[in-house]
Write a structure and sequence with these properties.
- The chain has a 6-stranded antiparallel beta sheet.
- It has 2 domains: 1-28; 31-180, no CATH class.
- It is an alpha+beta fold.
- The protein has helices spanning 2-27, 38-45, 88-101, 111-115; strands at residues 63-70, 78-85, 104-109, 136-149, 160-168, 173-180.
- The chain is globular, with a radius of gyration of 21 Å.
């Protein structure tokens, strides 16, 4: 009787371990950083309609391209970010184009800092940074093209989305971003 009870207990413990392992790995969201998957993410995987400011394809003259896509999971938000270098002339043209339609503008920082400013809105973190830095350095101008609060009264910005670009003129770099939470 004791042997059967012991074997049964081990079976329950072992079974629950394998079930937990199976469900936890299936529920983890996949982080995509492979630049060859840009078109797939842009055209198929991203569920929002806010990618009009992203290039249809990575420009042929782009250098140092980095992407990060996280589809989110359950209550977790999703984000998509593409960082690339282009000629100084192209970056200045893009800066002028996006600045003229931006609804909010910030110098450096991250979403937590921006939302806490007077009339601030959520932006993004620097997901495509080479370091573990969450914030954009002060050399970046963060231009918010749209920010939608989908929270409810008393829970401002609990749910929503925002998108825009971050431009570093001195490094001839642009970061296209979009977030949903």
């Amino acid at each position: 009787m004791i042997v059967l009870f012991s074997i049964g207990s081990l079976g329950v413990i072992g079974g629950s371990f394998f079930l937990r392992k199976a469900f936890s790995s299936a529920s983890e969201s996949e982080l995509i950083t492979d630049t060859s998957r840009y078109r797939e993410v842009r055209n198929q995987l991203w569920s929002g309609n806010d990618l009009g400011h992203f290039p249809n394809e990575i420009p042929a003259d782009a250098k140092d391209v980095r992407i990060v896509y996280s589809p989110g999971f359950l209550q977790g938000g999703s984000y998509f970010q593409v960082r690339l270098k282009q000629s100084p002339e192209k970056i200045q043209k893009l800066l002028s184009q996006y600045r003229s339609i931006a609804k909010h503008e910030y110098i450096g920082g991250n979403t937590n800092e921006h939302i806490n400013l007077p009339n601030g809105v959520p932006t993004t973190f620097f997901y495509t940074s080479e370091s573990s830095a969450e914030s954009f350095p002060a050399t970046y101008q963060i231009l918010v093209l749209e920010a939608n609060d989908r929270g409810r009264p008393g829970f401002k910005w609990n749910h929503g989305d925002s998108y825009g670009v971050a431009i570093n003129s001195s490094a001839s770099e642009i970061v296209y971003w979009t977030e949903q939470w």
